[in-house]
Amino acid sequence: MSPNTTQRWLRRFHPCPDAPVQLLCLPHAGGSASFYFPFSQALSGSAEVVCVQYPGRQERHDEPGITELHTLADRITEAVAEGTDDRPLALFGHSMGAMLAFEIAGRLEDAGTTVATLFASGRRAPSHRCPPRNVHGFTDEQLVAELAALDGTNAELLSDPDVLRLILPAIRSDYEAVETYRYRPRPPLRCPVVALVGDRDPRVDLDEAAAWADHTARSFALQVFSGGHFYLSSRQAAVVGLMRQHLTASTLLGAG
């Protein structure tokens, strides 16, 4: 993977080479790297936030989306291996991003890289298969209604036909990756896992979030926030505080 290719995948909105830890942030289905801009700003100094940009959106809009989640995880892992340094590396993923963070953490550990902490937000544990859905096969109108119900996309964007023409293909490819994902059993991760979930999330209940404990051989914590699937937008300060606390602990104790 060339440096230019790596740069397409990874964004540093607030470069901080002196920060003690790097935090790789993976967006939700249909999301982009810029979703994590405020988190990067808030954590600046405590961590260097590295945001993943999937193909098919924003400046990568002319690239086809990747519809197979394991393939997407492979590509991101390659970019991370070449685009990060030897500081401790933690991962944060929301919804689809949590699945990717889990898969990438496993690939990094298998390659000998120590992962400091995995933050899994708004997603049931990988071993808990989702009920069959076919959102990626919805009509445009049905897909827009699905996005509106989750309250994670600006309502003005969803009512703009020109914007929809740009964003719906990426959203559809992401949903296909999520809905066709099959967990491949593997040994528990060697890093601590922190699961985060909204108490009114229509897609994840507390038992499904707590089942992330089965995927680590280290410590596990479950943090429940007030809110729905996109609780982290309204609870940003609390989420950032929690991440800072765990990142500091993992750095002081020695990553992994």
From TrEMBL:
InterPro entries xrefs: AB_hydrolase_fold, TEII, TesA-like, Thioesterase
SMART domains named among the record's database cross-references: PKS_TE
Molecular-function GO terms, alphabetical: hydrolase activity
Record protein name field: Alpha/beta fold hydrolase
Domain Thioesterase TesA-like: start-end pairs: 24-247
Organism of provenance: Streptomyces alkaliphilus
Highest taxon of source: Bacteria
Keyword check for Hydrolase: yes
Keywords: Hydrolase
Example of a GO biological process term: lipid biosynthetic process
Family statement: Belongs to the thioesterase family.
